[in-house]
Amino acid sequence: MTDNEMMQLSERVGLALKARGATLTTAESCTGGWVAKVITDIAGSSAWFERGFVTYSNEAKSQMIGVKPETLAAHGAVSEPVVVEMAVGALKAARADYAVSISGIAGPEGGSEDKPVGTVWFGFACVNGQGITRRECFEGDRESVRRQATSYALKTLWQHFLQNT
Questions:
Q1: Residues 13 and 3 sit within 8 Å (Cβ to Cβ)
Q2: I want to staple 165 with a disulfide (CB 3.0 to 4.6 A). Which of 16, 17, 117, 121 is the partner?
Q3: Can you give the pLDDT at residue 165?
Q4: Where on the phi/psi map is residue 32: left (φ > 0), alpha (ψ -120 to 50), or beta?
Q5: Is 12 left (phi over 0), alpha (psi -120 to 50) or beta?
Q6: pLDDT above 80 (res 14)
Q7: Separation of alpha carbons 156 and 86, rounded Å
Q8: CB-CB contact of 149 with 30 (8 Å)
Q9: pTM of the predicted model over 0.85
């Protein structure tokens, strides 16, 4: 996805949130705040985006958004249970209507047989209790994996929660 396409998608997400009178928060690890950056590139985003959490370390995930240390120990940071706790924790901490969480291995190191470089877990939560998780494995270098993860998060948020606004 090009920068222009990402900006257009971010605008659509923002317009849909604004139309609903809803807010969004992010809890990002491997993307380092890139989703929040793309969202806040849109003028007027303060109407629907108040805060994001960059929880790069396990300690930050626990301290800032309430991911349980036992969940991290049992499953690792790049896992479905962790992105669920990240999304739910961010939703509560920000008092938002929607949350997106991302945790992955952007590389070039850090991968394993079970979780190769490019593995990214996504969590999406809504104040009404709806939620979904997704696991993707992206190809490319660190920059490419992070860009793809950012695009995927926006697309999935749009398609599963906001498109019918």
A1: no
A2: 16
A3: 59
A4: left
A5: alpha
A6: yes
A7: 17
A8: yes
A9: yes
